[in-house]
Amino acid sequence: MRNRSNAITVRDLTLGYDRHPAVHHLDGCFAAGSLTAIIGPNGAGKSTLLKALAGTLPPLSGSVSFEGSKAKIAYLPQSADIDHDFPISVEDLVTTGLWQKTGPFGAFSQHDRTTVLEALDRVGLAGFEARILGTLSGGQLQRVLFARLMVQGADIILIDEPFAAIDTKTVRDLMHLVRHWHGEGRTILAVLHDMALVEEYFPDCLMLAREPVAWGKTSDVLTADHLAQARAMIEANDPHADLCERAA
Amino acid sequence: MITRLVLLAAFGLGISTSTVGAIEPIKTVASFSILADITKQIGGDRVSVDTLVGPEEDAHVYDPTPRDAVKIAVAKLVVINGLGFEGWIDRLIKLSAGAPKVTIASDGIVSHQTTIEGHERTDPHAWQDLRSVQIYARNIAESLIQIDPDHETLYRANLARYTEELATLDQDIRSAISAIPAERRKIVTTHDAFGYFAQAYGIEMIAPQGVSTEAEASAKDVARIIRQVKSEKIPAVFLENVSDHRLAERIATESGARMGGKLYSDALSKENAPAGTYIAMMKTNIRELTKALMP
Amino acid sequence: MTTPSDLYDLVIGPFAEFAFMRRGLVGVLALSLGAGPIGVFLMLRRMSLVGDAMAHAILPGAALGYLVAGLSLGFMTAGGLIAGFVVALLAGLVTRVTVLKEDAALASFYLISLAGGVVLVSLRGSNVDLLHVLFGSVLALDDPTLLLLATSASINLVVLAVLFRPLVLECVDPLFLRTVGKSGSVTHLGFLALVVLNLVAGFHALGTLLSVGLMMLPAFAARFWSATLEGMMAVATLVGIMSGCLGIILSYHLGTPTGPTIILCAGAIYLVSILIGRRNGLLIRFLPRAHLSA
User: How far apart are CA A198 and CA A190, in angstroms?
Assistant: First the structure.
């Protein structure tokens, strides 16, 4: 076992809605600088897990802990709650990524502006600064959100199904960016459905079917047995379920 | 000796008869507060007066209640103003199925026509002229005497006293107004009830066109009033009926006129002051007028 | 052929002659400065009906003021302000903490508040139309009221400037704001408080119709002229001022009630904007224009 620090440690974590578990007794850790794909069938609790790691969903039981006191986390949710009709420019939206640095009132330096423009360039949207949000295509909007992620400069990046209904070129470009972040030593977790992407880009993988099915190197996780096990997970909540008796 | 006994007996008989007669005061109903007051002045303890439209209520929009019909049913005397003031009274009396004597207080006064809501009507507010109220008092006294002849002396005495008070007040009002310079004897008022006062005592009452009590004002109307007050040099505006108090003040400030106080037109005030009785009401009105109009 | 002096008589003359006309204009100007930007935000957050709801929500506060001090404008307005804040606060809390959204939360509390107010008023026994008494008129702006409007406008501009970034982010991507900062709740409530202040001051000075109408209609019109937030706020303010000028002058010449006339002017500008506005105007959409090369 390599002696690496763990960026995120999860202890006997159970998450859910209305006391029905969506993630059941998850225990383990994400190493610092790892690039992990989180996969599983529908309703497996993947988005729920990211929400808990991002701090927006309190656990039903168990805990989440981060290395270091001030772990900077950037979170890109699935189909973000963004108001597409709001008259905000691309540049302004990406600039909000600097929030953790400047706060609600801090001034923006020239350097900040450069960072934003560079991020836009990186995602292939140079020249889009003044465009209004509502005029962007799905793929373009996703690139803008990735640019914002970049500007946030976080150590831990959580991405939830970023590529649903996105064109192939954008997917390739953005995965390229993810790989670049990985190279910079950031810890990245991504929920994905596309197995081909997982196999191509992600060294580590967590297969979740409410219960953890497998967690480790991608090649070890993506076996026929594991896939069958995951598929057997029952999607619906059991209305007659008893209290869970399991201990850690 | 026998003469003294006879006198004593007559005296005793007289007392007993009058005591028997003095038990029940005459149940009277007055249509509104001003008439109620005048009736009480004439009848004194001999009458018990119920009022339909009470103090600070509006007779123009009054809606009679079943309780009012009951009041009339047990009444011996009903005093109304007449001249079309109580449009609802005839139906009410018919409904009550009583048979009281109905006195029209304004019988015999000289009335005039005026425009009410665009129509030519008889102006009913005759009580604004004190000389007419002397006639009111006399009519009420006559009715009381008819119903209760035993107390004619009392009624005549009260009538004489009250008429005297009215005459004095009438004179006071005239002196007060003559002290106001002639060119200052005009006001703007939202009341349309002072026609008789204007005629009797020589104060011109000007209605503010457009700035009504309910509807929202237009800039045109406000401009018009201000121009009118300025050009005709009207010294005071009495606009307390305008629903927006601040608008009234603005008109006063900008036109240079004084804001007049509260004028009582067709109802007494609830408390004793400042207009608990008819005479008090006229006194407070002339006081407000002189305060506003004296230079 | 209108000569310059005719134009003067028509447009400038009335303002030169009458102080109440000048004051009305200043009042509308002050209102537009603050209300314009706020209206744009309300529109973008789909809270366009808040103004009307708030006009009723303040009743119990005004009623309490009336019970305490009679027909005192100061007490009743202060009471209305407090009631407005309480309703806004509770609505904001419910939106954040429960599953109910903005519109439901606000509607719930304004209904409760209105009913409470009616009961309170009936306790005193009279049938005074409190709300009517509470509301002012653009033709009757005395010095204290003008000062109130000016102060309200200043507070609006300052608070909006300070809250601008959090407010924008809270509108565009509230989830993101929650993950990067804690200012979400404060911003939300601060904005609602600003709306209440603006509305109550507006009611007191100018009445409900004018206050709410000049806040929302110019914002709606602005939608058709600008694509950026800053642009919309500027256009909304401008439209408010124009409606004020036009409305007052028309009320002067035509004798129509001033408040509603101003709103009708704003409405007319709005309808025209729908047709010929440079952004998303209907005519623009239906009139073919040559497209650009790239």
Answer: 9
Which tokens sit at C284?
Answer: 């623009």
Residues A192, A232 within the same domain: yes
When divided into structural domains, chain C yields a total of 1
Q: What is the DSSP letter of A222?
A: -
**Burial (Cβ within 10 Å: 0-12, 13-18, ≥19) of residue A197:** middle
Same structural domain for residues A96 and A50?
no
Q: pTM to 2 decimals?
A: 0.79
**Contact call for C183 and A104, based on CB within 8 A:** yes
Q: Are B268 and B55 in contact (CB under 8 A)?
A: yes
pLDDT tens digits, C32-80: 998 999 999 999 988 888 888 888 888 788 888 877 887 677 788 888 8
Q: Are residues B166 and B236 in the same domain?
A: no
Both B33 and B146 in a single domain?
yes
Neighbour count for residue B215 (Cβ, 10 Å): 11
Q: Which residues of B181-209 are buried (b: 16+ CB within 10 A; e: fewer)?
A: eeebbbbbbbbebbbbbbebbebebbebe
Provide, as residue numbers in chain A, all residues whose Cβ is less than 8 Å from the Cβ of C167: none
Give the total number of structural domains in chain A. 2
For residues A224 and A196, membership in a common domain is answered with: yes
**What is the domain count for chain B?**
2
Residue A248 confidence (pLDDT): 43
Tokens 């035993």, located at residue:
B150
Structure tokens, A161: 């199904």
pLDDT in tens, A181-200: 999 999 999 999 888 999 99
Interface test with B, best of C11, C139, C249, C263 (most B CBs within 10 A): C139
A46 and A94 belong to one structural domain: no
Listed in sequence order, the residues at least 6 apart from B195 whose beta carbon sits closer than 8 Å to its beta carbon are B112, B114, B123, B125, B128, B205
Residue at C292 is within a domain: no
Please give the ipTM for the structure prediction: 0.81
Which residues lie below 8 Å from residue B49, measured CB to CB, with a gap of 6+?
B28, B29, B30, B36, B39, B40, B43
Are residues A149 and A214 both part of a single domain? no
CB contact under 8 A, C137 and B246: yes
Encode pLDDT of A60-92 as tens digits: 888 888 887 677 889 998 876 788 889 999 999
With an 8 Å CB cutoff and a minimum of 3 pairs, decide whether chains B and A touch. no
Query: CA distances (Å), C206 to each of B241, C51, C65, C233, in order?
Result: 20, 14, 20, 22
Contact A88 C183 (CB under 8 A): no
Amino acid at C12: I
In three-state secondary structure terms, C294 is coil
CATH number for A58: 3.40.50.300
Torsion angles phi and psi, residue C110, rounded to 5 = -70, -35
- Identify whether A209 is part of a domain: yes
Rounded Cα gap, residues C83 and B31, in angstroms? 43
Reply yes or no on whether the pLDDT at C256 is more than 70: yes
Boundaries of domain holding B257: 181-293
Residue B187 in any domain: the answer is yes
| Separation CA B120–CA B122 (nearest Å) | 7
- Residue count (chain C): 294
Taken in order A96, A101, A107, A111, is the CA torsion positive or negative?
negative
List, for residues B245-287, the tens digit of each pLDDT value.
788 888 889 999 988 888 888 888 887 778 889 999 999 999 9
Among the listed residues A142, A200, A132, A191, the one whose alpha carbon sits nearest the alpha carbon of residue A171:
A142
Boundaries of domain holding A220: 1-71+155-162+186-243
CA of C42 to nearest chain B CA: how many angstroms apart?
A: 28
User: Which pLDDT does position B215 carry in this prediction?
Assistant: 63
